[in-house]
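User:
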Amino acid sequence: MARPPILNPLAIAFGSALKRFRKSRFFEDLPKTSITSNYYRLIESGQNHPSVAKAMVIARLFEPDISYEATAMFLAIIAASEEGAHLEDKEERARRIHSNVAEIFHGIERGDKLGTLLAFFLKPICEFQAANSTGLQEIAMSSSVLSLVESNDKMREVIDQLNLNERVFQFLSSQYASASSRGAALDNFFEQIPSVYKWLFDSLKESVMHLPTTFGAETSWQWESNNADKFGSFVGVGYRDHITSTENLERYNFQYLWQKDFGHATFVILDEDVETEDSLKKEFWKNLTDALQRSNDEMLVSRSASALKIAEKTTFVKVSDGHREKIEELLQSIPCDGTLPVNSLWFFRALGDGAIISAVSPIDPESKKASIIEFLTFSESRRLAWKIDEILEEYLLFPELRQSHAKIP
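Assistant: Predicted structure:
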């Protein structure tokens, strides 16, 4: 497809913001990813824009400075703005881009970060404080940036003088944890995001726009069972009774341990009065085997026979007093809707794209049951994984994070 006669102002601003992220890391050549250097240069210049599917690649390049959720949403907006806008006529193309973004904007809840950003692209240039600056006076001041039909170089100059690239940079830097949008034009675009959210939630758009999301314990158990074949590894952090007890293992069958492609599960136990790591492992597998044998599910009963072999996929970690205090402090700092404080934390790494999804829960000490389970955003999950990995660095809980060039925030 031939290049359009004028570039998309949203793509120009996105490319400029991305260039700033790269320079902040002092990258001359980008680390090797599925985005080639040549293609990346086109993105930075605004001549092209990546699909929503590349949002995770970009997030990993510049984490923790950039938000995956914000990046995915802004790329979806660019894609939506181009709907029906591949036109040879400059004015018609500009009108279509403006119209598409206006439709999205009107479907976004007022006060939302994304809506606030788009409002600057839609409002007349004359309303900007920089409107009287040298170099802007000869353009159509009553137009929005999205409606301009100037040369691409002039478009970049206008976006720069109106500070729109800085606004996009700040939006992409924000940890976009929660928002709502009813814009019909977005529906088809969020389906492209290749993350754990695709199969964690019924609607991928809602998973990005409405996180964090809280479920009841039964829903979480069902989710874990339904997606057992999509996990690559697992890290659980909590107390002995919450993990190795018969009550817990009758609810959670840990079916992913039996999956061919599943790698390893690590359980970090926070109790002070634990004998040995080996004793924890034996207790867990005895109680899990008993729970499987009591099950009414023939498949689960049959799996109990191979438990000894599957046990090789699990490791139990008994933490020191100093590590325990740091982890408990971290858990208590995590906000959750429950009346009890957070005392357990779970990390699942997806097969394929390797996305990390975490869930936190306050588990009742009497019933040993979580009243609610709250799944966190991609960005929050990565940050928590970094923190745990930093505290327990000798255990290499998240080796993929060690390979990242990003510093722990």
